[in-house]
Write a structure and sequence with these properties.
The chain has 25 helices and 20 strands. It is of the alpha+beta class.
Length: 679
Amino acid sequence: MNYSKFFFVFLLFFVVNSVSRNAFSQDLSKINPLILLTVGDEKITYEQLEKAYQKNITKQQKHLYMLPEDSLMDFLNLYANFRLKVLEAKRMGLDKDSAIIAETLQNRKILSESYLFDKKVSDYEINKMLDRRKYEFRIGIIFTTFNQAPVRDTAVAYEKINKAMKEIQEGGSFEDAAVKYNDDENLGRKSGKVDQWITSGKIYREIEDAIYSTEPNNVYPKVISTPFGYFIVKVYDKQPRYFVLGAHILYKLDGPTDSVKTAEDIAKKGLQAIKNGTPFEEIAKKESSDNVTAENGGVFKEYFSRSTGFENSKGMLDIKFADALFNLKDGEVSEIIPTDFGYHIIKRIAERDLYDSEEKDELKKIYRKQYFESDKAKFLDNEMKKLEFSINHKLMDQLLSILDTNASNINKSWSDSIPANLMNKDFFSMDKKNYTLKTFIDLMNTQSNLRGFAINKDGLVRAIKKILEPDVIAFATKNLENEFPDFKQTLNEFNDGVLLFKAETMEVWNKVKFDTLRAKKYYEKNKTKYITDPTYDISEIYVLSDSLAQEIYKSVLKGDNFDTLASKLTQRSGFREKNGYMGKVSGNSNKFGKILKEKQITSPIVLSPQPIENGYTIIKVNAYEPPRQKTFEEAIPDFASKMQEEYQKELSANWIEKLRKTFNVKVDKKNLKKVMEYK
C-alpha cells in the first residue's frame, strides 16, 4: 500500500494566504508621558493619542509625531471633540441609563471572551511558533498507519513502529529501519528522508515538538502518536531561516533520451559563456525555457524560503534547486543543477531577514485553523476543574445502556425510552449547582446550539460542556480588567463609543429632520443647479432583421400608419398591444433617449433604423420637452441628502462649540514642540 498521498495531506500544512507588512516598532518612551491635551479634567498623554492614531486606517504616517504640525493639530482637535462628546454624555447621566448599562455589559461579554482566548490560549502558542520559525530543519520519518474505519485498529501499526524504535535504540541505523518499516513507500525508498525543509506550522504539532527538541543527527527517543499513525523522527540538519531572491536559466527537457544530452550540452555552453563574461541576465533572456522569469533576466518575482516557499504565492522549489540556491553567496552563480524539470544555472541575487509581523499574521491563520479549538477545549477543561465540575457516571452508564448510541438528538424522540424514575436524578454539577437529567434533556431538545450531538458517551459529554461553557467563560473572565490593563482600556473605549453615539443621536441626528421651510430656502438659493433632462415621448418598432427594419421604415415614409405597423410587426415583448408606445424617456439616462439626444432631435420625427440589442429599432418621436429648471417638488430628491448633510454638520459644529465653552480644552504648546522636535 502507498501512503505517500495520505502522509503529505495530513502531515504538511501548506499555507497560501498572502500577508501584509505592518509598521515597524519605534521606541517612544521619551515622549509617551508628555501631556499634550487637556479636556475638562482629563489629562491626555502622547501615548494615549498614539494608540488612537494607530487605529486610524487612513493615517498619513506610521507614527503621530511624524505628521506635519497642522495635521497633528487636526488630529488633536478630532480627539478633543471625541472626548468632549463623551464627557457631555456622562454629564447628561447617560452612563446611568439602564439600556446603555445593558449594552455595555453585552459589550464586555463579547470583548472579554475574545480577549480571554487571545491572551490565555492563542498568544502564547503563536509566539512560540514565531520563535520557532527562526529555524528550519531537514528531517527523516518512519511512519506506520492504521485503518480509521469502520474499526480503528492500531495494534499492528503500534507493534511495527515499536520494532523499528527498538532496532534503532539497539544500534541499528535509522535509515535501514526506515526502508524496512515505513508504510510510506516513497519515504521508504528515500530511507525516510523528507524532500522538504520543515519549520513551525508546516507539520503536525506533535511531530514539530519532537523536531524542535532534537539536535541534528539524532533520533527523537520516543514514538510519536497522532490520530493518523505513529512516527519516529530523525533530525539531519538545522539552519537559521531567512529569505533569498534567486534567478535561474532553465534548459528544459523535451524528450526522454537524446534531448537530455542536448539540453545538458546547451546548459554547459551557457554556463561557459557566463564564466567568460557574458551577463547572466542576457543569457537568461535569450535561452531560458522559463518564460515567466526569462523576461526579467531570470530573476524570480518573490523572495523564497526553503521551508515556507515564495513569500506570497507559497510555491515550492525542487529541494535540489533550493539547496543549491542557499549554498551560494549573493551574486554567485552555480554549476549546472539537474532537476525533474531540466538543467538549471542558478544565481543568488540577495537575501533578507524574516519580517516578524508577516510571519505572525500567517501563523495566526494556521493556528486558528489547526489548533485553536483543541487548545480552547483544554483551557476550558482546566477552568471547569477549578469549579469542581463532575458527572454522575453511574447515571451515564445507565443512559448508554438504554439509548441508541448510533443515533443523535436531531430526532426529539431520542430520549423517549428513558424511564421516568431517572429524570429527577442529578446528571452533572459545577460550582455547587446541580443539573438533573430532565434539565439536560430539555436543553438538548430546545437549544439550537445543542442540536446534532451524538447519543454516545463522547457526544453527551461534549453537550454537557457546551451547556456549561457560558458559565465557565464568565468565571474565567471575571478579573480580566485587573489582569490586563489593555483590556480595561479597550472596554472603556467601547463604552465611551456607546455613550458618544447616544449623546450625538440626541443632540444632532434626532434633530436632522426634513424641514420644508429650510428646504424651500435652500432651493431658492440653489435652484439654477437643478435642471430637468431633455425628454422624448416615443413609440418604437423593434425587429431582428436589418432588411425588415428598412422595409418598415420605407412604409412609414410612404405614409403607412406607424402605430398600426407597430401593433403587427414589433418584436419587443408586450409592446404590440401598446402599438409600440413607450411613453416619456430621458435623453440622459434612457438608451433610446440617448440616441435621440446624440442626433440632436428636437421635433417629431421617425428615425431611420438604428442597431440596438442584437436587432434594429425604428423610433418615432411624438413630442420633445427641452431641459428646464425643476420645480421645488421635482428638485427635492436632488438636494435633500446634501441639505441634510450640511444641516447635520451645522448642528454638530454648534454642539462642539457649546461643549468647548462647557469643558475647557487646552493644547500644551511646550510639550507639542518637544513631540515635533522628536523626529
